[in-house]
Structures are given as structure tokens and as C-alpha cells.
Amino acid sequence: MLSAFLQIGTIGSLIVEIMIIIGIWNIFRKCKKPSWWALIPAFRDYQLSKCADRELDGRMYLLIVGLQYFFRIVESLFGFLDDEKFIEKHTFGVVIIGFVFFTVIIASIVYTFRIYDGLRILFSEDKKKSVWTLLLIGKFILIFKWGVSKKYQPQFIYVDERDNDGAALSGMVAETMDTGLTVNIEERTAMDFFKKRYLLRDIHLNIEPGHMVLLLGGSGAGKTTFVNAVNGYEKAKAQIVLNGTNLYDEYGKMKYKVGFVPQMDLMRGEDSVLNTLIDAAKLRLPASMSSSERKKRISEVLKFFGLEPVKDKLCDKLSGGQKKRLSIAMEYISDPDLFILDEPNSGLDGVMARELMEGLRKIADKGKIVIVITHSPDRVIDLFDDVIVLAKDSKLTGRLTYFGDIEKAREFFERDKMEQIVLRINRKEEGGEGLADKFIEKYAEVCRG
Q1: Is 167 part of any domain?
Q2: What is the pTM of this model?
Q3: Residues 189 and 80 reside in one and the same domain
Q4: Quick check: helix, strand or coil at residue 140?
Q5: Predicted confidence band at 85 (pLDDT cuts at 50, 70, 90)?
Q6: 261 and 302 share one domain
């Protein structure tokens, strides 16, 4: 009799699984998703969450299911919950494990309800009816009904914008220069929940020595990612060549040829200005440099940045402008060929910001390349030679929209102000005109002649 019941239970489970597969297969077909996902447990629920525009819930559900499998594997391997001596000896630990496992089960139920509520909305199902079906009978009935019945059609089709084609690739490569900076970024990618996502793509440009360049773009356009790729902090599929040397291939040697000043000041408040520069010199100058040469370099930097009068002052006691100048001086101590600054004028008033930018202009005039990110470019735009404009295309990938002379940028975008240029390429939901793809392709055409 027991074996007969077990056989009936096994057949029943098989029928339920077949109904789930058939239902999900047809739901994916209706939602224009690959139907074969229906054959893979757990992952098919994640794909269902995408159909219902509940992807974050789906990610949490998949993580929770993963934890459940982990607990089961550990228990099957060690069997400690069946070991009375182990339980008696580690009662508190077993209770904690039990509580965690119980919490995981509750969380999986919660996220299952959230995903299926999204599906209910997708197929315009009555809320009370679907909840009671889910509680009393099971999700397989709802899934089978929504998938097989022609009555239930999705009210919307969820489309991940990153699956679109985006703006066409330019097919260009910047010719490597013996002096200056050559950037050829084919792509910078990251894995986003088992899927490759493009953060940057198709960025090619040359910057001459002595040029001060504005890096412009809206929020999320890829400015920081671009900077990190150029300075080698986060390598891309790219060739970055500075004064004839490939920065990626010779990173150990070249990292001191690139100065990067982040938005946040990185200095110890209890140290003096002089000691801060001495520490920076120890880190960034060659060990072979003599003590007298190192002192001479520190003295030159103090003088160049106007910090000599406050060299014995504690960093905590400096003004905002002085702190910014010290942050720049800490990187400038190694006399880098490329200088990159993220919001160096952040928190400064107009006069101090102008003074700081004029200092950067002097650095560029010494034959250095200076790249600056700033959210208030128009008040100092006369100090810049060129502008790099990045924007998210319709695939949400950071792309090069323009690089070149400031005046020509105004003509290219048909706008006088840099802030207005950003509005042209920002997405409509960000308050912009949503013309990024148009200008990406227009710039490629201009470059091809």
C-alpha cells in the first residue's frame, strides 16, 4: 500500500512538473523570451520575474534558492542534523543554523509571491482569485493557465534596453602617437547577473601634449569608468599609449607617469603640509633619487602650488582651496605626463575655483596633458583646449559623442554652453533631449570625412 502511494506521489509530481514546464514555455513565448529557460528550475523563475518587470525580486529569489541548495548539500555531506551527539554539543549553533534556514524559506515564499503578483498584473488576473489559487492549490495551476489559455495575454512586453543594438560602431582606430596620449578603447565590460554588459565601447582619440581637456557627460555616461580605464586602475579591452609606451603593458613603470586626483581629499588631517608631501615623495619618487634631489622637488612643488607659507600648518587647518591644491601637489610630486582630476573645484566658490583651474592650466602649459571632470565647466571653459563628450547610447553603453576643439563642439551640438550640450545627449527621462545615438553616429561620420 505504501509503495502504491509513493508511486502515485511520484506520478503526481511528474505531472505537476510537466504542467509547469508547458505553462512557463508558453508564457516565455507570449513575452518574447527564449522558451528553453522553462527547462531549468530556479533560473526560469528569474526569467519569469523579468517578464513581470520584477527583475530585482527575481535576483533575490535566485540567491535565496542558491542558499537553500547550499544548506542541503552541506547537510547531505556531513549529516550533522542527524547526529544527536553533535546537536547536543553544538545546540546553540544548530539553533542558529535552523533559524537562518527557516528565514531563507520564508524569504523564498515572500519573493515567490512578489514575482507571481507581478505576473498576475501582467496577465490582468483577479488578485483574490490568484492568491487563493497560489495558497490552496499551487503555482503550477496559475502558470499553466496563464501560459496555455489564449484568454491571458501580457499587457506589456518587458524589454531590457541594454539588449537593443545601440548606436552603430564607428569602425575607427586612433593612430598611435609617439608623444601625447592615444586612447583606443574597444570595450569595457562587466558581468551583470550572468550576462555581459558593455560599460564603454568604441572610444578612440589622441590628445596632444600641453592640452587641457574637459571630460563632459551626464550622470552614468561612463566618465569615471573611462578615467579608470585610461589610468590603468580598471583595465579595459584597450590600448592606452602615453608618450609611445603602452600603459597596460608597462604599468609598473608607467603608473607614476599618470597622476589621478579623486574628488575626495586623501590626506591625514593631523599631518603638516610638508610631511604630507614628504610621504607622497617617498611613495611616488624613485628610490634611487638622492635625499637632496627629493628635498629640491618638494620645495619646487610647494612653491608652484603656493603652499610654502603654510608648509608647517596641519592639513585639518587648511582652507578648502588649500586642501585641493595639496591634493593635486601630492600627485604632481612625481612630475606625471598625464594628470586626471575628478571635480577638483567641488565645494569651492567661484574665485577659488577659477584660481585652481588657472593652476591646472599652468601645468598643461608645461607640456603635460590635463583631463578634468567638472560639473560647472562654463565658468572656466576658456581655460580648456578640447572637450571629450561621453553619453549613454540607447543600449545604455558609454560612447564617445565628440572629441575636439571647444568652439567646434559648440557648432557640432548647436549649443553655446557645455551644460546645454549635456542636455542634448542626456536621456529624456533624465530631463534631456535623448539625442545621444544621433550625435554618436554624426561624430563618426565627421571623423570618417
Answers
A1: no
A2: 0.76
A3: no
A4: helix
A5: low
A6: yes
Where residue 384 sits, what CATH number does that domain have?
Answer: 3.40.50.300
Measured torsion, CA atoms of residues 162, 167, 171, 174, in degrees rounded to the nearest 10: -90
Distance (Å, rounded) from C-alpha 36 to C-alpha 399?
Answer: 33
Query: Could you report the per-residue pLDDT of 241-267, keeping only the tens digit for each?
Result: 999 999 999 988 888 899 888 877 777
Judged against a pLDDT cut of 90, whether residue 339 lies above it is answered with yes
Domain termination site, one of 129, 159, 189: 159
Q: Do 419 and 336 sit in the same domain of this protein?
A: yes
Instruction: For the chain, give the percent of residues with pLDDT over 70.
Output: 89
Q: Output the DSSP codes for 74-98.
A: HHHHH-GGG-HHHHHHTHHHHHHHH
Q: H-helix or E-strand containing 106?
A: helix 91-122
CA angle 427, 431, 436 (to 5 degrees): 25
| Residue range(s) defining the domain that contains residue 92 | 2-159
- Which residue in the block uniquely carries the three cell numbers 594628470? 339
pLDDT, tens digit, for every residue of 38-51? 898 888 888 888 88
193 Cβ partners below 8 Å, 6+ apart? 59
Number of domains in the chain: 2
Does residue 53 lie within any of the structural domains? yes
Question: pLDDT tens-digit profile of 340-358?
Answer: 998 887 767 778 888 888 9
What are the cell numbers at 280? 607622497
Residues 180, 78: Cα–Cα separation, whole Å:
61
